[in-house]
Amino acid sequence: MRADGRDAASLRDIKIVRNYIKHAEGSVLVSFGDTKVICTASVEASVPPFLRGKGSGWVTAEYSMLPRATHSRSPREAVKGKIGGRTHEIQRLIGRSLRAVTDLTLLGERSVLVDCDVIQADGGTRTASITGAYVALADALRGLVTEGAIEAIPLRESVAAVSVGIVNGEVLLDLNYLEDSSAEVDMNFVMTSSERFVEVQGTAELEPFTVSQMDELRNMAMRGIRQLIAIQNEVLAE
Amino acid sequence: MRADGRDAASLRDIKIVRNYIKHAEGSVLVSFGDTKVICTASVEASVPPFLRGKGSGWVTAEYSMLPRATHSRSPREAVKGKIGGRTHEIQRLIGRSLRAVTDLTLLGERSVLVDCDVIQADGGTRTASITGAYVALADALRGLVTEGAIEAIPLRESVAAVSVGIVNGEVLLDLNYLEDSSAEVDMNFVMTSSERFVEVQGTAELEPFTVSQMDELRNMAMRGIRQLIAIQNEVLAE
Amino acid sequence: MRADGRDAASLRDIKIVRNYIKHAEGSVLVSFGDTKVICTASVEASVPPFLRGKGSGWVTAEYSMLPRATHSRSPREAVKGKIGGRTHEIQRLIGRSLRAVTDLTLLGERSVLVDCDVIQADGGTRTASITGAYVALADALRGLVTEGAIEAIPLRESVAAVSVGIVNGEVLLDLNYLEDSSAEVDMNFVMTSSERFVEVQGTAELEPFTVSQMDELRNMAMRGIRQLIAIQNEVLAE
Amino acid sequence: MRADGRDAASLRDIKIVRNYIKHAEGSVLVSFGDTKVICTASVEASVPPFLRGKGSGWVTAEYSMLPRATHSRSPREAVKGKIGGRTHEIQRLIGRSLRAVTDLTLLGERSVLVDCDVIQADGGTRTASITGAYVALADALRGLVTEGAIEAIPLRESVAAVSVGIVNGEVLLDLNYLEDSSAEVDMNFVMTSSERFVEVQGTAELEPFTVSQMDELRNMAMRGIRQLIAIQNEVLAE
Amino acid sequence: MRADGRDAASLRDIKIVRNYIKHAEGSVLVSFGDTKVICTASVEASVPPFLRGKGSGWVTAEYSMLPRATHSRSPREAVKGKIGGRTHEIQRLIGRSLRAVTDLTLLGERSVLVDCDVIQADGGTRTASITGAYVALADALRGLVTEGAIEAIPLRESVAAVSVGIVNGEVLLDLNYLEDSSAEVDMNFVMTSSERFVEVQGTAELEPFTVSQMDELRNMAMRGIRQLIAIQNEVLAE
Amino acid sequence: MRADGRDAASLRDIKIVRNYIKHAEGSVLVSFGDTKVICTASVEASVPPFLRGKGSGWVTAEYSMLPRATHSRSPREAVKGKIGGRTHEIQRLIGRSLRAVTDLTLLGERSVLVDCDVIQADGGTRTASITGAYVALADALRGLVTEGAIEAIPLRESVAAVSVGIVNGEVLLDLNYLEDSSAEVDMNFVMTSSERFVEVQGTAELEPFTVSQMDELRNMAMRGIRQLIAIQNEVLAE
């Protein structure tokens, strides 16, 4: 039994609220327990310079946390004048995850920029961001179909992400902040609905991990992501 | 009758939800119609260098908008690497407004930093921010009393703000984005519960304004702020 | 009687020297007592991106202080690598004030950039800047007429600015640094020759102010600006 | 047979030259084929603020590429004024890999900063950096023992890294630039001499990958890292 | 005969006005013809970190140009967010020139920061800056003696600077902007009153120069600097 | 006899290794004793904006030091977010030196960017950079001739540089770090094969220098540069 009453293999309470911000082409408020992220998908008519004239679209992401999303206040990156290494890592991860399931050629020469802004953080902000960003992206792409800009939604399959870790020797699913900060090992899996991996990132925070531990973490993550994809499907069917 | 059904002297639907972010000492979600701002008040044990050892506290503010709070997406200031002029103006205004009603000596050598993050913008983000920030500040200061750090809440009175403007020759209260972007004159008033002004800012966007127009704008703003202060009192009494 | 011998309703010694910098299309050295600002107006053949192809011109301003314009030396913004909030506020104010009296359509697709550089500061640098900038702008626009680029000077009326404040309970005109730093209330008025306001900014530095105090400040400012406009006219008639 | 004559499971020609830069406490030139990286380890007497007074040391890394290390010239990050996302990701990875095998408490309150500067790039710059950085770190720590600052070398085991990938459906070890840029899947493994993982990073560049592909990639990487660790041991025994 | 009526070996009209800015410990307006520079010397009670506790003072300089000091407007370095290479070169040169004649030990643990701000540029801004900065520095140091902080003015001798160049094959003294921009060779000499050199900088802009040309340039510069030092002495004797 | 066994008028051991980096159009590793610099010349198809459409090419340079090139580690300029004054000075010097011997019109509308990255520093990094950069530039230009882009190598003559200084009253050639840091006077000469000067920079670090000392320094530098040019010729003839 974990501090918040879950067993080792349970996700936190997962919620995805669609159409959360009225201006955006797609937008959700995603909650993994007390972790809450606003994901908005903005469609833009242009592509980055390296893609111009190549008939392909682009999907990218930016990630940020409100200063008081965290237990103690963190200074704004805008005030520091530069984006930190952790932010860079996470937003690149979100972008790659979304591109892996998008048919960029079908999208045509346009971009979707997904902003993931954490308003309250309690561990797993990057996995909640990817899981919510997929829904915001799907809504924005549906809108393009509705307005006749493209013929079909250019998504090959769906994608979601979850964290797993080893805490006090035990393998746990979907770590909250307290668990995460005492984890020996921390892994994030990004998997598609065809049960294939887009991203795998494992870090030994305190103690390197063995092949068999990696397999156990992977199995638990796969079970969690299957549930997240089911929730995405349910929400998108509303 | 205005586009959203209000008459000239009416506020939009005003909501202030307290305890919106679990980590912050004070936090609200304030809505002025479709304008929504998260205000968090963070108590810090130190003061800026120019106040060290002087027995006085400090209250300051930072302001930002999520990239897709606006109709079309605005680039992040963190990406541009610097904070723009408009942001500077607004956050300095919020800070001065809060300090005007705070007894900084009673606060003792500690700071309260209020973050106002606009998650959806529809005009009047600075006035909604000030009105919400006061409630978040009050909650954070109450917490200091509760935990015995200070004896009484160091607030002399309450403060709220509203915009007024001249649109097509007519004086209107609490402009939404559409009204604001076609206004000839735009004024913001920050007033305390003793009906005294902390800040007055008026700008002729298209056409300079006369003394009598300024008086009319002021009267309408004063009526609006009285209502906002009543709502603050109600919410804080819950 | 004030420390420098003036009575409450008097301006300091005002001087405007035209053609102060030989390269600029318009340039003045403006003095409000010991506050001295070099204002240069530079005509450029282009407009900002948001105005391209719209047949309208643009007037904007930049403001800075030499490091030792102030009593103790202030670090350069170029060394800090960013422009501070106060600078942003002031240069946006100067730009708006000048645009309010300029017919931007008559100006055609060109820009006038007015630089206000304070070489010695003793309070009221922003009001001196606006008052001097108008003269530099007028000279630059005259030059455009002389060289046949436009047919008439695209100025609808003239504009000047002054500060007023409450110091020890007394309403004073055109505060110097010593007065300004002990003022309870500080207001800046920007008014045109038709006695209409372009900008009104009032701040309670120590104590909020009442409606009747605001009226008294406004009356005194209006009298001061009438005198400043008379001086501008005189200088421009030389 | 690969373009450079290797079979799928072979490393490129690996060389580690010790004592390459005379000023540094530890320094190597590491080559993975045509990828060449200078790694220097600098011992500093202080630790970052979050560790001060806690009796623990710190190991961190910085990574950069000379502008013409790559096929076409890349602008310097110093000229752009900020460090890019890829650089951040890589230098954080190197730092975590080294800390995973270092006993920071035994190190005492001092830091080792390892700089990895790529002078010629041909794929695998991050894995070459980690493999070389370990040797530079070991040399710097030996120096601390030699001069009596610490009693034993505070390294629990050794660490090395290699890339693996799927190119045209085939699993390959230690990809060069040409292979890397056409890979469907790209994984980096960081493993210690006890055959435990410090970091695992896998990215589907074109096509998500299955569980069995991940296992195949992992097996090949483990074989490659065993050889790299043997080379490190050999070089350090000289 | 040159365009402005001088012969090859003549300085432009040189003026040094002392006590130009009321706040600064030393300040001058120096003119070399149409080149005008405000030099202020600010005394600060601290020294840079590398000198703390060593009983030595420091003299340094900053240099800047108002945006419209030049024929066409140059963007502010504060707006660009960084100081350019030319500015760096010049301010380092001014600082070294002043330190060469200052007895830093006699100065004690305090700094003098000399700001050279060009308000109008017509060639030779760096040599005018050095020549004026010396007088501002001397005044600031006199002030320290007057207030009893130090016993004697810690200046070993005086220093001034001039430019020389080869234009259309002819060696000219004190080039104005027009001459400077068409010069084949451009040299700046900084010399003390004992006729010794502090700095020599020569650049072949179009054509390398011979030993004998260098000697001719040097002789002419020495004659010019002797005159500048005479003017400094005269002004300081007032 | 100097600390490293040389007499006053001797160069250190000079080595220039061509084709050091495989990607660059020209590249050398140049050593002046323990000072080692990688110089790469990159040919680009464009010219800076101020040269576009004028039928002229451009040669420019960038300079940097690896953090641990120096005795104690220096922070990266990319981390500080800006390039320091010393770097600016040196890279401008290298660029001017190379342009002085290049026929930019013959080069056509293309640029050569020479990067000088110091991997180990022991005094004289700028003079080693210029001497090596010339060889890298020559190789890149030869490549353009070989591929038929231009008809002849657009170099009018060769160029090299050396430092001279006065240490303990004695004039020395090619100072190493130890000598340089205790020098009373430090001069750098850049001279072409026709024995004409491109750049002369002399600085009195401790004590101003006389005309006759300058002549002695110049003679010794000229002898040193003649030897460096002979080595360049030899290396380029291989």
TrEMBL record, chains A, B, C, D, E, F:
Coiled-coil residues are: none
Reactions catalysed, as given in the entry = tRNA(n+1) + phosphate = tRNA(n) + a ribonucleoside 5'-diphosphate
- Its domain of life reads Bacteria
The protein in question is named Ribonuclease PH
Q: Which CDD domains match?
A: RNase_PH_bact (cd11362)
Q: Which UniProt keywords apply?
A: Nucleotidyltransferase, RNA-binding, rRNA processing, Transferase, tRNA processing, tRNA-binding
Keyword Manganese in the entry? The reply is: no
Q: Which residues form the signal peptide?
A: none
Query: What Enzyme Commission number(s) does the record list for this chain?
Result: 2.7.7.56
Which parts of the sequence bind phosphate?
R86, G124, T125, R126
The Exoribonuclease phosphorolytic domain, residue ranges:
11-140, 159-223
Q: Subunit structure of this entry? A: Homohexameric ring arranged as a trimer of dimers.
Per the UniProt record, the source organism is Geotalea uraniireducens
UniProt-listed InterPro entries: ExoRNase_PH_dom1, ExoRNase_PH_dom2, ExoRNase_PH_dom2_sf, PNPase/RNase_PH_dom_sf, Ribosomal_Su5_D2-typ_SF, RNase_PH, RNase_PH_bac-type, RNase_PH_CS
Tell me the protein family, please. Belongs to the RNase PH family.
**Function (record text):** Phosphorolytic 3'-5' exoribonuclease that plays an important role in tRNA 3'-end maturation. Removes nucleotide residues following the 3'-CCA terminus of tRNAs; can also add nucleotides to the ends of RNA molecules by using nucleoside diphosphates as substrates, but this may not be physiologically important. Probably plays a role in initiation of 16S rRNA degradation (leading to ribosome degradation) during starvation.
